[in-house]
Amino acid sequence: MSRAASAPAVHRPLLLLVDDQPEELRWLTALLHPLYRLAFAESGRVALQKAQGLAPDLALLDVGLPDMDGFALCRLLKSDPATREMPLLFLSAHNDVGSRIEGLSHGAVDFITKPFHPEEVLARVRVHLRLATPRAASASQEVATTEPEESGTPDQRLLAAARRYIGEHLGEPLTVNQIGRQVGLTGRRLLALFREELGQTVSGYISDERVRTGQRLLADTDMSVADVAYHVGYSNAGNFATAFRERNGLSPQAYRSATRARDREDLGDAEAHAQADADADADADARGDGHRARDADGPVA
Hints:
62% of the residues lie in helices and 8% in strands. It is an alpha/beta fold. The chain is built from twelve helices and five strands. The longest helix has 46 residues, at 252-297. The chain has a five-stranded parallel sheet with strand order 2-1-3-4-5, sandwiched between helices. Helix 9 (202-220) packs across helix 11 and helix 10 (225-231) packs across helix 11 (237-248).
């Protein structure tokens, strides 16, 4: 194995190595330690914590991790303003074209397949660190001025990713395992996450979200009840109406009528207040004109 001369410690970039195989970590440490500072993570959740806390300059990810796959970890890192500019490189035995395309499509800048050539790994790390340098200042400014979309603990960010996926696919049949795969969790872990963070089952949350979205569509659009039901994932309007009535005490049509009547009443009140203000202004102007006319006539003899 080729070994490079050690770089000055003060200027060495920090690399995050994410792999659950001790042998791989030993190999990478021997290769990279002379040139870079290193941090290690053996799972996706630990990697998220260290990426947020240490702000590495670059991360090397394995695809197969014990708690989530590397693709899900890549998505989560790219969704966080604090880590989205960090170059992510996959180092993996998954050398099929589909895996490489998937990794790159989630935001990775490179995909290096096993068996690795030491000089190639060093060259690619060096190139991506150099390419990332011009973005560092703008990324820091963005993090300082932008409210993070995905903040909080790793569990909260995983929950946010799952909720976002549910919201974007309400009209489709959804299963716990399907949602879990999208965020890199097992179905069992996803169920536990929803219970711990929301006090709900996944199916209960989906049902509530379908009704909440239905409420917005009924209030804000002219879609028929049947179209709203289909849009939020119900196969027929009857099932939607039953679920809606259980949660709101009204049928979808009655809810829409009540909402629009309230909106008309609020609009009428606003128009009445505006008219009253206008009348008051007109009266004030008229009184002012009368005073000015008397002043112009002068004192009465």
